[in-house]
Amino acid sequence: MRLIARGAEADLYEVDWFGMRAVVKLRKPKRYRDPELDKAIRSRRTLNEVRVMAKAREAGVDVPAVYFFDVERAAIVMEYIDGPTAKDLLESGKNVLGDVGSMVARLHAAGIVHGDLALTNVIYRGGVRPYFIDMGLGYFVEGSGRRAVLEFARDVNVLLRVLDTYGERGEDYKRAFWDGYSALGRLAEDVREGVRRIRASARYVER
Question: In principle, which of 76, 114, 119, 165 could form an S-S bond with 87, CB 3.0–4.6 Å?
Fold first, then answer.
């Protein structure tokens, strides 16, 4: 078992799972929390992540296959996805935000909020096919009303804030994202307006 990433909430290990290359995500105990509460939180988040991944796959969004999970140990064994991240591809000159936008549209159409739409959380298997990972902060919303629009807008804004750091190229990336996201239809326009309001409010606070 080889440590490949250490996060605030969980550590990731590369393992051999019955001859298959796999990743174990292990949520770490938090010493500052009551032990029983900590176990309940880690168990709940583990089960929630598995459910979000299953729902995403049903919606036609590629995510790692889950081989095994143990809520008592707060552990998930999942498929290892080999390839560059969306960030890697952007920095090599390939604009993949249209793909990302269309896949985020599928998530939102299914009522799924990813929760951490970072460019490093989209891996292109073989440099071609996007897989969404790290869905531990994901959750479900119902319908297409004001609350859903706000949640989806917040989700998208996480990604747009990353794209802000790319300067002029970032504007091209954002246009590509919205072109892909337009697959959501009328709801896409409502979400886009929600993002405008969030960003306008942020600029007002900064003043």
Answer: 119
Q: Tell me if 23 sits within 8 A of 12, measured CB to CB.
A: yes
Report whether 184 contacts 108 (CB < 8 A): yes
> Catalytic site residue 88?
no
The predicted model scores a pTM of 0.92
**Which is nearest to 125 in space by CA: 159, 154, 86, 175?**
86
Tell me the average confidence (pLDDT) per consecutive run of 10 residues in the chain, 207 residues long: 91 97 96 93 96 98 98 97 97 96 98 97 96 96 93 98 95 97 96 95 56
- Identify the active-site residue in 11, 116, 134, 155: 116
Cα 104 to Cα 183: distance, rounded to the nearest angstrom? 10
